[in-house]
Every structure is written in structure tokens, then in C-alpha cells.
Amino acid sequence: MSQDVARLIVPIGLILAAIFVLIPSVPRVERVRFTSEVYKWSLVAVLSTMLLYSLVVFSLTFNIRALEPVILQGTLLLMIYHEYKHTRVLIKLWCSMLIVSAVLGLMSLYYADEIKIPVLADNVISLAVGMIFLVWADRYVQIIFDGYDKPPGEQQ
């Protein structure tokens, strides 16, 4: 059991290290700003719904793996609330993970003996939500640099 937990924790730690340490960022980034309130609140609504669903699944099954999305979605909601500077990166990571899981779910349905409509609908909706929020992340989540709206090299 402890080896399974170690196998789970090590990749998660490496991913978090890559996000917050290894990825170079502009040193003068202060925070992010959402340029569209509709995008921000729809993202919060989707994340809150998925967070509640994950908490219900955990409370019914007591499966520790059900806490993985709870941690990611809770962290993302806190980052949105505090306008943390790496929020856009985590939004893109969350969307990418949602897209990959939906595509893998659709591939498993393709090779299944019978197709279950609720599972198909869940995967299609997850794919659409992930793609919509990923495509609009660059447009509606703006990085604020040191009180300016442009990186240091582009100031006039």
C-alpha cells in the first residue's frame, strides 16, 4: 500500500516542481487579471461543481484517489480568488488534463463492446469544457507586470 502511495506522490511532486520552479517566468509578474467577468465566473462555477462532485464521490467511496481532483480544483479556485500570478498556467494545466482524460475516455468507449450514453455524454462535455476554457485562457486571463500591462522589454 505504501509503495502505491509513493508511486502516486512522486509524479505529482515532479509536476508541481516543474510548474513552480523549472518553468522560467518573467520575474516582475505581480498578478493576473480576468478581462471577462463571464469567463471568470463560468470557470468558478464549473470548478465549484466539479469540486462538489469529487467531494461527494470521495464521501461515498472513501477512495483516496478521489481527492486528487479536489486538491487541484481547490487550489485553482484559491488562486483565482487571490489573483495569483501562476493562475493562467494552472488553468491551462487543468484544461489539458481534462482534455486528455476525455479523449482517453472516448477512446475506451470506441473499443468497448457497448457504448453507454451517460459515459459518452460525460466525456464529450468534459472535452468541450476543457477546450473552451483552454482556448479562451490567453484572451481572458491577462498577466499584470509590475504595475504595467506590458512585459519589461516592451515598455515605451
Portion in strands: 5-15%
Order of secondary-structure elements: HEHHHHE
Number of distinct helices = 5
What is the residue-averaged pLDDT?
82
Shape: globular
Helical/strand content category: mainly alpha
Count the strands?
2
Percentage of residues in helical conformation: over 70%
**What order do the strands of the largest sheet run in, or round the barrel if closed?**
1-2
Taking the alpha carbons of the first and last residues, their distance comes to 58 Å
Radius of gyration (Å)? 18 Å
- Biggest sheet descriptor: 2 strands, antiparallel
Low-confidence stretches: none
Describe the structure in your own words.
- The chain is mostly helical and 156 residues long.
- It has helices spanning 2-22, 37-61, 67-82, 87-110, 117-140, and strands at 29-34, 141-145.
- It has a two-stranded antiparallel sheet with strand order 1-2.
- The longest helix has 25 residues, at 37-61.
- The N and C termini lie far apart (58 Å).
